[in-house]
């Protein structure tokens, strides 16, 4: 049985004509068949065509090649061809120009067949010919740099570096063994997700375990532990857990990698700000660490906060930038929720007042955003499986969408705290909120929660490629949504296609003419946890919960972020439990994912290890 790669989902006619099929469900069939006024033959069962029996075909090829070799061995050897003066001169000239060349490529020579191998190469007299076959590790490195990095240049002798494009310290980032192993682990798993070849998956896990071992050995050396390559290796190991995690334990492993990176930043101290690479990775870790602290209701690590404040005071960070203003608010939200969770803030009125204060800061930040950060709302009754509530958002860029969802995440948490405090105060004896204005605050709080949930849902279509699918339908399907509805299954061809990943990043310190290593985990992780928070809230309706579960499962399958599948399973369990027993114990939404007591604080020495 031969694995044939991911099969085409198109109908038989479109496959024969080698054109794109939009896979509109029967009885109407695809748009191409409808335009040609022919009956669509339908779609095959993909499980039946993943493998093909090639035994008879291979046997025939082997027998044919064996006969050819016997015939060739019985014939007299051919005399070597004589070189003409012109060809001799040409050959000698080539030899003088490149005597040290070990690879010669000649146009029109197909090389040896895969069945004859080295013998055919020797018999053909083409001893100087070498096949361009890359190793799995080389392919993994290429996949990693192509899909998980942006503006990466490591070679100090590259033309861009010699031309002076970019800061000088960007060309000194070394790829040590632990960084190399972590990059190849992520790249190999990406190849597995792309090709479905199980060999790549096994190799990816072996590389991951090697990377864990090599990184832990490197971190025992203080000089190596404080290098940029060590911090970047830990970030990439966390990325590996994000894209491969299949169990709830993988969420804990991701947390440990983030905590380890935060501990490394604490060890590096002021040195973190000396290079552009270090400053870039500081922002990366700060973003992931904020998500982790908010999820687990723990205080943001003070050493990392001090380094960020030093970056601001040194003028490295512009405090007026919306990203950094939001970062400070998210730190305050994380610290406030940590005090609330550990009963250091228990007065209901104090909880409501502080929540309203932080929420007002976020609303003021939203109002102060420049026009380039604003999104556009598109109203449509079409495709309700993807576009719920009758509208969706179109953001100018990937970072803008993430900033808006970050603000919504904070507001969802604050209003959730406020609602619980109000309910507790109403039920107290005597009531803690005797003033009638708190009834209006409660109503406004509940309405805000539903509006924030709807806005998060409206941000999802652009993330999962809906805009590209609409453009294709308008182009080939005559713009008929009722006849050609778009479903999540039809979006499998458009993962992350509605954001231009090469646009200027407003979050970077140095961007113009600069090539920086960047690990794209912040945005994807934030989207997953924002959706999970929406599905896990007390006020969330059952249809919204089921929609969130379906979208998380789609992201896990279509985009290769396995953590999304884990979160979808957690919400399924929650729904099943609610069906059996109404109500449940109070606790942070992260507590249902892992046991918080199992996760060490990010500023402990034990978390330096990966």
Overview of the molecule:
This protein has 610 residues and is mainly alpha-helical. Among the domains are: 1-47, no CATH class; 136-342, no CATH class. 56% of the residues lie in helices and 2% in strands. It has a two-stranded antiparallel sheet with strand order 1-2. The longest helix is centred in the last third of the chain and has 30 residues, at 398-427. It is globular, with a radius of gyration of 29 Å. The model is unreliable at 77-129, 151-171, 501-523 and 584-610 (pLDDT under 50).
Which key terms come to mind for this protein?
two-stranded antiparallel ribbon, 610 residues, mainly alpha, DNA-binding transcription factor activity, RNA polymerase II-specific, Fun_TF, two-stranded antiparallel sheet, nucleus, Zn2Cys6_DnaBD, Putative c6 finger domain protein
Radius of gyration from the alpha-carbon trace, in angstroms? 29 Å
Rough outline: globular
For the residues shown, what is the average pLDDT? 74
Number of strands: 4
How many helices does DSSP assign?
22
Structural class assignment: mainly alpha
Strand residues, percent: under 5%
Pfam family, one: Fungal_trans_2
Keywords: Nucleus
Domain Zn(2)-C6 fungal-type: 10-40
GO molecular function: DNA-binding transcription factor activity, RNA polymerase II-specific; zinc ion binding
């Amino acid at each position: 049985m031969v694995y044939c790669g991911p099969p085409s989902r198109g109908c038989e006619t479109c496959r024969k004509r080698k054109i794109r099929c939009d896979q509109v469900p029967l009885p109407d069939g695809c748009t191409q068949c409808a335009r040609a006024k022919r009956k669509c033959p339908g779609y095959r069962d993909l499980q039946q065509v993943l493998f093909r029996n090639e035994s008879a075909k291979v046997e025939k090829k082997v027998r044919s090649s064996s006969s050819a070799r016997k015939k060739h061995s019985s014939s007299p050897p051919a005399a070597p061809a004589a070189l003409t003066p012109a060809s001799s001169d040409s050959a000698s000239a080539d030899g003088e120009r490149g005597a040290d060349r070990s690879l010669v490529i000649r146009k029109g020579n197909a090389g040896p067949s895969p069945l004859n191998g080295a013998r055919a190469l020797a018999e053909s007299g083409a001893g100087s010919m070498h096949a361009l076959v890359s190793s799995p590790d080389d392919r993994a490195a290429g996949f990693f740099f192509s899909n998980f990095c942006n503006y990466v240049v490591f070679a100090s002798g590259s033309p861009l570096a010699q031309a002076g494009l970019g800061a000088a310290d960007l060309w000194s980032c070394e790829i040590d063994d632990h960084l190399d192993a972590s990059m190849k682990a992520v790249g190999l798993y990406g190849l597995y997700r792309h090709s479905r070849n199980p060999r790549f998956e096994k190799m990816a896990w072996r590389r991951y375990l090697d990377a864990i071992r090599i990184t832990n050995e490197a971190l025992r050396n203080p000089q190596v532990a404080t290098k940029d390559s060590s911090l970047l290796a830990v970030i990439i190991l966390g990325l590996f857990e994000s894209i491969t995690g299949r169990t709830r334990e993988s969420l804990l492993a991701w947390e440990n990698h983030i905590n380890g990176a935060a501990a490394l930043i604490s060890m590096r101290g002021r040195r973190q700000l000396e290079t552009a690479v270090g400053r870039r990775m500081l922002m990366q870790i700060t973003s992931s660490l904020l998500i982790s602290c908010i999820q687990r209701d723990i205080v943001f690590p003070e050493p990392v906060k001090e380094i960020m404040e030093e970056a601001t005071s040194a003028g490295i960070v512009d405090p007026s930038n919306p990203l950094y203003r939001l970062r400070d608010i998210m730190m305050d939200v994380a610290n406030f929720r940590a005090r609330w969770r550990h009963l250091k803030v228990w007065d209901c009125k104090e909880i409501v007042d502080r929540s309203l204060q932080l929420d007002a800061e976020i609303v003021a930040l939203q109002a102060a955003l420049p026009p380039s950060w604003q999104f556009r709302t598109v109203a449509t009754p079409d495709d309700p499986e993807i576009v719920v509530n009758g509208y969706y958002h179109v953001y100018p860029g990937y970072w803008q969408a993430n900033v808006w969802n970050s603000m919504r995440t904070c507001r969802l948490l604050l209003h959730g705290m406020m609602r619980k405090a109000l309910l507790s105060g109403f039920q107290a004896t005597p009531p803690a909120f005797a003033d009638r204005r708190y009834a209006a605050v409660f109503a406004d709080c509940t309405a805000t929660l539903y509006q924030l949930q709807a806005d998060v849902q409206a941000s999802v279509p652009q993330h999962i490629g809906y805009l590209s699918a609409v453009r294709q339908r308008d182009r080939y399907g005559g713009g008929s949504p009722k006849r050609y509805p778009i479903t999540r299954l039809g979006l499998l061809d458009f993962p992350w296609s509605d954001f231009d990943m090469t646009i200027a990043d407003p979050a970077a310190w140095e961007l113009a003419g600069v090539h920086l290593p960047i690990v794209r985990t912040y945005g994807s992780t934030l989207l997953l946890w924002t959706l999970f928070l929406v599905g896990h809230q007390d006020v969330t309706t059952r249809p919204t919960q089921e929609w969130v579960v379906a979208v998380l499962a789609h992201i896990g399958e279509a985009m290769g972020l396995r953590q999304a599948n884990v979160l979808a399973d957690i919400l399924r369990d929650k729904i099943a439990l609610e069906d059996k027993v109404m109500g449940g114990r109070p606790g942070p939404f992260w507590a249902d994912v892992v046991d918080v007591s199992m996760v060490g604080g990010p500023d402990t020495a034990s978390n330096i290890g990966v």
